[in-house]
Write a structure and sequence with these properties.
The protein is of the alpha/beta class and 272 residues long. 36% of the residues lie in helices and 16% in strands.
């Protein structure tokens, strides 16, 4: 059992009824045509945009500029479809639950590909591109618990003439609407939809962490690595690139493409 798919299938079997925690980052959606943020692919976001546009501070200084950037980003995602890695993760969920085990998928991605693939036990810890919220905290459509569907908002006037005057506004209080995403200068506890309490509870209970396409560059992944170290929980990272320094602490790094490896694992488990 020296090949990666057999080793990973064996590790998943050993979890039995314990919690399998799957963590996904931008790399899992790369095969669907969505650029990563910090990856080595030519379209990586931070290779083009060195200024940190994804911040509350930038939105407050230039809300029209912030929305122009996000709408461009959303447009690149619009036609994306789940790839075999998304589908395999959904199959792993069904397999683990079907044998009486526990499962949770926590994604850092704001796309909707996991949902499209059939994942149900899902936490979108960085928010979701298909929803918006009011920029005024305390509004019933804003933090800490409110939001609305993006397809309920007409961006036509702003797209035709991008300016502060044409920005979409909250239908309840009139403040600017904002993307329903976690910005780099915000906290995981800022909105109930990020389900931070559920994430922390899962990290404390996990029996195996499977990390797919993440650079381990955010606070959530640091939490996973710390908990795995102290609780002696195995961590398997699937990424075709070289392991990062942050990810080198006691985990098994499998240099493979998730869209190729995970279907093989599911086939060995009889999950597909």
């Amino acid at each position: 059992m020296s090949d990666p798919s057999s080793r990973l299938a064996s590790a998943l079997r050993d979890v039995d009824r314990g919690l399998v925690l799957v963590v996904t980052g931008a790399g899992v959606s790369l095969a669907s045509g969505i650029a990563t943020f910090r990856g080595s692919d030519p379209g990586a976001i931070w290779k083009r945009d060195l200024t940190e546009l994804a911040t509350l501070d930038y939105f407050r200084r230039d809300p029209a500029g912030s929305w122009r950037w996000y709408l461009e980003r959303f447009a690149t995602v619009a036609g994306a479809r789940p790839n075999p890695a998304h589908q395999a993760i959904a199959a792993l969920e069904r397999w683990q639950l079907g044998r009486g085990g526990d499962f949770l998928l926590v994604t850092q991605n704001i796309d909707t590909l996991h949902e499209q693939a059939g994942s149900e036990r899902l936490v979108k810890v960085h928010g979701s591109l298909d929803r918006l919220r009011c920029s005024r905290d305390g509004c019933r459509l804003g933090a800490p618990s409110g939001s609305l569907a993006r397809d309920e908002v007409d961006f036509g006037p702003f797209s035709a003439a991008p300016a502060v005057e044409t920005l979409p506004r909250c239908p309840h209080c009139g403040a600017f609407l904002r993307p329903h995403v976690l910005w780099f200068d915000e906290l995981y506890t800022g909105h109930v939809d990020y389900q931070w309490d559920r994430v922390q509870e899962a990290v404390d209970r996990m029996h195996l962490a499977l990390c797919v396409g993440t650079s381990f560059a955010v606070g959530f992944t640091e939490l996973v690595l710390q908990a795995a170290f102290w609780n002696r929980v195995p961590v398997v990272a699937i990424d075709p690139g070289a392991p990062t320094i942050a990810a080198s602490r006691g985990l098994e790094h499998v240099r493979a493409r998730a869209e190729e490896l995970l279907p093989q694992v599911c086939a060995e488990l009889g999950a597909l």
